[in-house]
Amino acid sequence: MKRRQSLGWTMPKSMRLIILPQALKISIPGIVNVAVGLFKDTTLGVGHLDVRYCRHDPWPYSGVH
């Protein structure tokens, strides 16, 4: 914080220009991994619903038509 004081920056300006970029550099890969995982899980869930509920004949081997 001495660097901030020597440059004459306020706390919000130092957060915006020094702290936040470093925090984002560290946290973005984890956030992207979570987003990709959620997308994959959602895609599998939709595929599962398509297979279960979009067939023409829901009971093809039951003999009841």
Average of the residue pLDDT scores: 78
Low-confidence regions: none
Class computed from helices, strands and strand pairing: mainly alpha
Indicate the proportion of strand residues: under 5%
The arrangement of helices and strands along the chain is HH
Number of strands: 0
- Give the number of domains: 1
- The gyration radius over C-alpha positions equals 26 Å
Shape: rod-shaped
Please give the share of residues in helix. Answer: over 70%
What summary fits the major beta sheet?
none
Count of helical regions: 2
| Cα separation of the termini | 77 Å
Blueprint (SSEs and pairs):
Blueprint: H1 2-7, H2 11-53
Structure description:
By secondary structure, this protein is mostly helical. The protein has helices at residues 2-7, 11-53. It is 75% helix and 0% strand. It has one domain (2-53).
Core attributes:
single chain; mainly alpha; 2 helices; 75% helix; rod-shaped
